[in-house]
Amino acid sequence: MVDYERFVVDDGRHEPQIVIDEDASAAAGEAQHRAQCSCGRLPPHRPGTPQQAWAAYAAHARRCLGPASQPASRVSLGMRVTLLFLGCMVLWGAGWAGAVSVANTLDLPGGADLAVRAAGLLVGFASAGLLMVAMRRFIAPMRTDF
After folding, report:
1. For the segment 17-32, what is each residue's pLDDT rounded down to a tens digit?
2. Helix, strand or coil for residue 46?
């Protein structure tokens, strides 16, 4: 016997609901059950017994809660976070070094020199932030389609 309760996912996205399909019940002359999921992505299935409805929901839950969508990385999570941190620091440092180089090359007066250095600092922070956004799926892979 299959333990259907282990597929009940109380995360607010995948809450099962077994309902009686009135049209199919009227046509068959007995109660026909259909599974529904709160995510709204449960594929259509034929109504039947409650066990068949739970089996349809279980297949949906296995698909949604299956292994991560990306292949397992050979690099540990700690190492991936460390590499991301180092990449961000390199981008921030490159923005700062580029701004200092431009300010020194152009021999700007006091206020303009500070503005160029501040702009370089902001460009470094922005590029580090974009790197974090771009790499988020590789740092902590998410589950398959919810």
Report:
1. 777 777 777 777 777 8
2. coil
Query: Tell me: the pLDDT tens digits for 54-85?
Result: 888 878 777 776 555 445 556 777 888 899 99
Dist CA 132 CA 40 (whole Å): 31
DSSP state of 49: -
For residues 10 and 20, give the distance between their C-alpha atoms in angstroms, rounded to a whole number. 22
* Number of Cβ atoms within 10 Å of the Cβ of 107: 8
List helix spans (H) across the chain.
22-28, 50-64, 77-106, 110-139
Q: Among all chains, which residue has been given the structure tokens 């370089």?
A: 120
| Residues shown for the chain | 146
Overall pTM > 0.85: no
Burial class (CB in 10 A: 0-12, 13-18, 19+), 66: exposed
Q: Is 67 left (phi over 0), alpha (psi -120 to 50) or beta?
A: beta
Strand extents, DSSP E, the chain: 16-20, 33-37
CB environment 119-145: b (16+ within 10 A), e (fewer)? ebeebbeebbeebeeeeeeeeebeeee
The DSSP H or E segment spanning 102 is: helix 77-106
